[in-house]
Amino acid sequence: MAKREIIEIDEEKCTGCGQCIMACAEGALELVNGKAKVVSDVYCDGLGACIGDCPEGALSIVVKEAPDFDEEKVEERLKSLKTTNEGQAGGGGVLACGCPGESAVELKPTGIAHRGAIGAGIAQSELSHWPIKLKLLGPGAPFLKGKDLVLLADCAGVAYPNLHPEFIRGRAVAIGCPKFDNHENDVQRLADIIKEADLNSLSVVMMEVPCCGGLAVAAEKAAERAGVKLDITRVVVGRDGEIVSVKPVAAA
After folding, report:
1. What range does the domain containing 161 cover?
2. How far apart are CA 189 and CA 119, in angstroms?
3. How do residues 102-128 score in pLDDT, each as one tens digit?
4. The dihedral sign for the CA sequence 218, 219, 221, 226
5. Residues 177, 102, 55, CA angle at the centre, nearest 5°?
6. Residue 221 DSSP label
7. CATH number of the domain that residue 130 is part of
8. Cα–Cα distances in angstroms (integers) from residue 153 to residues 205, 209, 217, in the given order
9. How far apart are the first and last CA of the chain?
10. What pTM was computed for the model?
């Protein structure tokens, strides 16, 4: 190894928006636990093409001991990423340098109603940001600041017919599954969000099935771990689409 220029990422500034990943033609960057990371120094040419795409100024060029940039390994990685992404997207043209679906975007509900693709009715989206998966949300994302957050069990989103106007309108949303997601990771990600975003409140919308209770437990543990007094409400949805109960939880 020798000293050379390489990209360095300030994790305190990084919000996990993914813009730098899209800008890196070598595939040197990935989102890991909501933060951009250099996968390996051998993939980074140190030219800094990604720096200008970071809205937070989290990227910089430093000089440090690093292995040489390896074009052959970059080519192998890009081929591997392309194969993986095409398989996940059905060959839908996803960029080889990263998944654009992980990029953080603030959306503005238009107030325009849209007819469904199969003409089943007219509805309006109230979604205000992307991504929505808990594991992909950066704790420092600007669209989370001071918001009322809805922590939504993914099944509840399908079961409850009035979800958008009743729970998503004017709120930020995070989706997870307590049965298949890693509980400890969810607790820590929520704790980071609660601490950094200064949330106004947290509503846990979950199903009546027993495994869904883990989502509410994660929320309460996260507030305790963050050391923040936060109003938490549990909303339980029945499998028939009716609200079974709404229970405020004492501020943690």
Report:
1. 105-249
2. 38
3. 556 676 665 555 555 555 566 688 999
4. positive
5. 130
6. H
7. 3.40.50
8. 6, 11, 13
9. 50
10. 0.61
